Every structure is written in C-alpha cells, then in structure tokens.
Amino acid sequence: MNNPLLLQRLEQALGHRFSRPDLLVQALTHRSHSALNNERLEFLGDSVLNCSVARALYDAFPDLPEGSLSRLRANLVRQETLAEIAAGLQLGDVLRLGEGELKSGGFRRPSILADALESLFGAVFLDAGFDAAQHAVRGLFDPLIARIDPKASGKDSKTQLQEVLQSRRLPLPEYRLVDVQGEAHDQHFVVDCVLSRPTLTTRGTGKSRRAAEQAAAGGACEALQQAAVRK
Asked: Which residues are part of the catalytic machinery?
C-alpha cells in the first residue's frame, strides 16, 4: 500500500494528482483496517459517479428516452462493472485491508473493489471539486459508453439472450465454468454458454465469473443474429 510508484500509477490512471495525499490513502482504506476508512468517501463518490455517467449518456445518446438512459446508467454503475474497472486499475494491490480480509482474499472481492473505486471518485471531489471528479469518471467510463449499442436499451447480454430464447420458446442457456487462469490477485475466468436448441456453444473470458458469462452470452446473441440474417 505504501509503494509510491503504485500510487503514482493510480493517479495517472485517474488523471488526477492529489494535493491531499491523505484523501487518496483514506479512499483505499477498508473499514476492516481502521476507523478512518473509505465508507464516507464511497457515499460521496456514488453520487459523483451517477451524475457524471448520467451526463455522459445524456450527451452521447440525444435521442434516447429517460427510461433507456436510466437502464444504461444502471448497467454501467453496477457492482460488476465497477469491480472490472477497479481490477483493471489493480486497486487490489494498493488497498489497505485488515488481517482477516487479507487472508480471505478481500483484495479481489468485487464488492470491496467497487466500493474503493467509488471512494476514489469521492476523494477526487473533495480534493479538487466536481469537475476534476467528473473528469476522472469520464476517463474510465467514456470507453465503455462508446461501445454501447443504444438499440440494446441498456440490457446486459445475459438478459438479451434470455429474452431472445424465450420469444422463440427455446430452452434457456447453461453457463459452464471451463477454467480459472492467473494468480489469485489477477484471475481470468473462462465460461462457456451452451444452448441445446439451436445447438450452440460460445466462450467468454473476464476478470470475474459474471463478466465471463456476459461475454459468452454476448457471443451467443451475435451468433443467433447472424443466423437469422442468413435465413
């Protein structure tokens, strides 16, 4: 946690250099470590995150109605997405955790990673104001927003696949964990999405099992769409 190079790398990824380093330290401190922890910063960061993502979606999709924008935002700010971003920032390497959380692998627990990311946004807000915090959020979320298909209306791949299969009165998919690769602090999951009708298997990978399932489901959706076009 005290490695200055790791903290400097994190600041670079956020696009913000803290004038108050103590806020950065607090944002990375779990309640299991000490009384001065990141829970209050998480409260602030959650609001900053939701507002910043809402503005980004509002600008990116001027024709979408409120309901669709809300679904897109919910998909972006959910725990799984936040944990994926936090893992990409390698937050687990700089978190301050109590001994029990360290032994139980808390540095890779999605809830802890997601909370720490929100806390960082709160810390940037206190350190330099809303514009700086929004800049940090946009730097991490704009690439995700650029890949959004607005026709999907914010539904994740597993939900889309389920709805397609149900509309065709076909059996629901089965998700099978194929492999877990990498070290404990940097794991990658491999999952197959298996359809019995039509017979189809697609594979997805991700830094969590859920992310891998979503990737596999996305592949299945694309395959079904391509098959429909060919008919």
From this structure: 46, 118
